[in-house]
Design a protein that fits this description.
Blueprint lengths: L7 H4 L1 E2 L19 E3 L5 E3 H14 L18 E2 L1 H8 L2 E4 L5 E3 L3 H7 L3 H4 L5 E2 L6 E2 L1 H9 L7 E3 L6 E3 H15 L3 H38 L1
Antiparallel strand pairs: 1-5, 2-3, 2-4, 5-6, 7-8, 9-10
GO molecular function: ubiquitin protein ligase activity; zinc ion binding
Organism: Paragonimus westermani
InterPro entries: RNF_E3_ubiq-protein_ligase, Znf-RING_euk, Znf_RING, Znf_RING/FYVE/PHD, Znf_RING_CS
Length: about 220
């Protein structure tokens, strides 16, 4: 496979871990074709479309995965500022240790001075984020800061979010529970469960009475 066809994970670039503005809150990877929602949150185009498809099947009301504001439409606009910020991101080639802009990855692959030996290097791959590293010691340091080991669950809705976004998500989630249609859905669900439990107890009672009557007749 030529250098141009090698994926980022196979080629091996080091990305900065401190700047949360360059990572999609859904896939937790660097933005790819970023778009902006009506509530001014950015996502990868593919990530948000997949999210909308999955959430439409299970929820009556489509909401933002971060702030839970309702999305009445499905129109998203390209986030040019985010795209420009990502393209200018400085990343490091793990093969030749050259610093390049994120938007120049393909150009660097075609002229990397060590590309002829890059496929012979033994790289360790993180099973969570697919980034590659030289040796176990580098991998262990990566585990302490890997973006995908920092996932946690919202104590209100149970959705899995990155711990960096947890405070904002839970604050919006808690505030939205008081007036959104989700609260009525939860109450309705609880009421429906109570009805089914009561009906089940009644059926069990009828069956028990019938069994006792049958045994009495046989005696």
């Amino acid at each position: 496979m030529g250098a141009e066809g090698v994926s980022d994970s196979d080629w091996g670039f080091e990305h900065p871990t401190g700047d949360s503005d360059i990572f999609c809150p859904i896939c937790l990877s660097v933005y790819e074709n970023p778009v902006r929602s009506v509530c001014n949150h950015s996502f990868c185009r593919r990530c948000v479309l997949d999210y909308m498809k999955s959430i439409t099947k299970s929820r009556e009301r489509l909401t933002c995965p971060l702030c839970r504001i309702g999305w009445s439409g499905t129109t998203f606009h390209t986030d040019w500022l985010c795209a420009k910020r990502v393209d200018g991101l400085q990343i490091t080639c793990r093969v030749c240790r050259t610093s390049v802009c994120y938007g120049q990855r393909a150009a660097h692959r075609s002229k990397c001075p060590k590309q002829s030996t890059s496929t012979k290097r033994q790289m360790r791959t993180c099973q969570l984020c697919d980034e590659q590293f030289d040796g176990d010691s580098t991998m262990k340091r990566h585990w302490a800061e890997c973006r995908k080991t920092n996932l946690t669950c919202c104590s209100i809705c149970g959705n899995c979010v990155h711990k960096y976004y947890l405070l904002e998500h839970e604050r919006c989630c808690r505030r939205g529970r008081g007036f959104s249609s989700d609260s009525s859905n939860v109450n309705a669900h609880a009421t429906a469960e109570n009805v089914w439990v009561t009906a089940g107890l009644v059926v069990l009672g009828v069956v028990a009475l019938g069994l006792f009557a049958f045994l009495g007749i046989r005696r």
